[in-house]
Design brief:
Elements lengths: L33 H13 L28 E6 L12 H10 L4 E6 L7 H22 L4 E7 L1 H10 L16 H6 E7 L11 E2 L24 E4 L26 H12 L12 H9 L20 E3 L14
Parallel strand pairs: 1-2, 1-3, 2-7, 3-4, 4-6, 5-6
């Protein structure tokens, strides 16, 4: 175990008279099917023939970006949901909302448009191409924009593989790479229930066993360039990030209520650039303190399960695949 997370509800305080209730970061967890989760992930490595569907994402054959530049904002938050999660009420939504509310009018959010189904090789390859192109296009179009990446389960696999070198990936080996400028603009990466989790890497947070990896671990330290910008959350009984024969689904959805959403939001907010003094707080520590204190509730009577950003756009590469409630892997 390393980097043990103390759930924030146990250390909530008040700052500037604003309190973010724990309910704000609560979600409605889908019930994963452990067998389906394992089978869909293992097919990524056991099927030697890539589906024809991934050919359209080959960056060498099809070099034109699959996305267009969107409006510039100070920060772009990109969420990549888990298998079967609906677009609304997903694990990552409240985290993105907390970041947006910490910096009003400075944050835009897109939800990565990929199928999030059990056809992982095809769907995640398209997701990786879309994510890489989105970051590269935005970096070129918006010189001041910085990026925050969030991934849960299959979405964590996509984010991690997009950040890694092609020879370390399981999906998207031919979808291109981030430009140096885009990679530098990524200020925070938060992953939950990552199938490619490596217990020995210094980016892990939770009560996991350091000698146990995820179902599809990446090479150790292959994301070391992001060590100070990455938190990879994993709990001991999550069979996705702690490969185990214990087929208990509760661990993989524990992130909805164990305080790690709050902790991830606090980490991200601490990475934001110093605020304009005219806008209020002017230091990273003050922003982080607001998140640690659970600040930013907004309306205390708001529906805690409401979608965190009903106006969030898709980073699209094709038809949306909203997914059906079911396994999150």
């Amino acid at each position: 175990m390393r980097n043990r997370v103390t759930p924030l509800p146990k250390r909530i305080g008040a700052l500037c008279g604003v309190v973010l209730s724990v309910a704000l970061l609560a979600g409605c967890a889908p019930e994963p099917d452990p067998t389906a989760s394992l089978e869909s992930l293992r097919e990524v490595t056991t099927d030697p023939t890539p589906p024809a569907a991934i050919d359209e994402y080959d960056a060498e054959t099809h070099p034109e970006p699959v996305v267009e530049a969107r409006e510039c904002s100070n920060y772009l938050v990109i969420t990549a949901r888990g298998t079967g999660e609906p677009r609304k009420k997903q694990l990552l939504g409240p985290v993105a909302r907390a970041v947006a509310e910490a910096r009003p009018d400075e944050v835009s959010r897109v939800d990565l448009n990929y199928p999030a189904d059990t056809e992982v090789l095809a769907g995640a390859t398209g997701g990786a191409r879309t994510l890489i192109d989105t970051l590269n296009v935005q970096a070129a179009a918006c010189p001041e924009q910085q990026f925050v990446l969030l991934g849960y389960s299959q979405g964590a696999l996509i984010v991690g593989d997009a950040l890694g070198a092609p020879d370390t990936r399981l999906v998207g080996t031919k979808v291109g790479e981030l430009t140096a400028e885009a990679a530098e603009r990524i200020i925070a990466v938060v992953l939950y229930g990552n199938p490619r989790f490596v217990g020995s890497d210094p980016t892990g947070y939770g009560d996991f066993a350091e000698d146990i990896n995820g179902l599809l671990p990446r090479p150790p330290e292959s994301l070391s360039a992001y060590n100070d910008r990455l938190r990879d959350y994993c709990v001991a009984d999550d069979f996705i990030c702690q490969s185990t024969l214990e087929m208990e689904e509760s661990g993989h959805v524990a992130y909805y209520e164990n305080g790690m959403q709050e902790d991830g939001a606090a980490f991200i907010i601490a990475q934001l650039s110093p605020r304009d003094p005219a806008a209020g707080s002017d230091t990273r520590d003050a922003d982080a303190g607001e998140a640690d204190a659970g600040a930013r509730s907004g309306d205390p009577d708001a529906d805690p399960n409401a979608d965190p950003d009903p106006n969030a756009e898709d980073a699209s590469s094709g038809p949306a695949g909203a997914g059906e409630p079911g396994s999150a892997n």
